[in-house]
Amino acid sequence: MKQVEDSEILAMFAVEKTRNEAFNLLLKKYQQKIYWHIRRLVLNHDDCDDLLQEVFVKVWKNLDKFRNDSQLYTWIYRIATNESITFLNKQKLKNNTPLDEVSTELAENLVASSYFNGDKLELKLQKAILTLPEKQRIIFNMKYFDDMKYEEISEVLGTSVGALKASFHIAAKKIEAFITNDDITY
């Protein structure tokens, strides 16, 4: 089946009669990508499902205000990223947990999750990613897993391309050091 262009989805959404169909096309096109973006940030499937629903409710409520000054999917990624960061910050405050312990807690949840089916190396990679500062983790996930271009990540995060490249490079070096360190258990 042919992928529907964003411009066509937006045109359909602008017409009351085709609004629901347009939104269903948008969901079909982006729901899985956004799910995995959120999932890599919060790691828990149930939390991810809740956030995914919140993201698309926001998209539904605000799509008619979308100004086309960015790509539609980077706009949706920005909403998903902001919702995920807000969720993680609320969790940290709710549990009165220091930032480094949040990463440990997320790693423990990942290991215990029935939805995680990776091998030991994948688990070690995920734990390595969790050691990164929040912004580096987001940048690494978007570049490595979502295969986004630096320009697209720049639109989502509002950060210069040069800063993104530096952050990604530093994150990759930290992950490499974590993975090659034999003293770390997994």
TrEMBL record:
<keyword id="KW-0805">Transcription regulation</keyword>
<keyword id="KW-0804">Transcription</keyword>
<dbReference type="GO" id="GO:0003677">
    <property type="term" value="F:DNA binding"/>
</dbReference>
<feature type="domain" description="RNA polymerase sigma-70 region 2">
    <location>
        <begin position="26"/>
        <end position="92"/>
    </location>
</feature>
<dbReference type="Pfam" id="PF08281">
    <property type="entry name" value="Sigma70_r4_2"/>
</dbReference>
<dbReference type="GO" id="GO:0016987">
    <property type="term" value="F:sigma factor activity"/>
</dbReference>
<protein>
    <submittedName>
        <fullName>RNA polymerase sigma-70 factor, ECF subfamily</fullName>
    </submittedName>
</protein>
<dbReference type="InterPro" id="IPR039425">
    <property type="entry name" value="RNA_pol_sigma-70-like"/>
</dbReference>
<dbReference type="GO" id="GO:0006352">
    <property type="term" value="P:DNA-templated transcription initiation"/>
</dbReference>
<keyword id="KW-0731">Sigma factor</keyword>
<comment type="similarity">
    <text>Belongs to the sigma-70 factor family. ECF subfamily.</text>
</comment>
<dbReference type="InterPro" id="IPR036388">
    <property type="entry name" value="WH-like_DNA-bd_sf"/>
</dbReference>
<dbReference type="InterPro" id="IPR013324">
    <property type="entry name" value="RNA_pol_sigma_r3/r4-like"/>
</dbReference>
<dbReference type="InterPro" id="IPR013249">
    <property type="entry name" value="RNA_pol_sigma70_r4_t2"/>
</dbReference>
<feature type="domain" description="RNA polymerase sigma factor 70 region 4 type 2">
    <location>
        <begin position="124"/>
        <end position="173"/>
    </location>
</feature>
<dbReference type="InterPro" id="IPR013325">
    <property type="entry name" value="RNA_pol_sigma_r2"/>
</dbReference>
<dbReference type="InterPro" id="IPR014284">
    <property type="entry name" value="RNA_pol_sigma-70_dom"/>
</dbReference>
<dbReference type="InterPro" id="IPR007627">
    <property type="entry name" value="RNA_pol_sigma70_r2"/>
</dbReference>
<dbReference type="Pfam" id="PF04542">
    <property type="entry name" value="Sigma70_r2"/>
</dbReference>
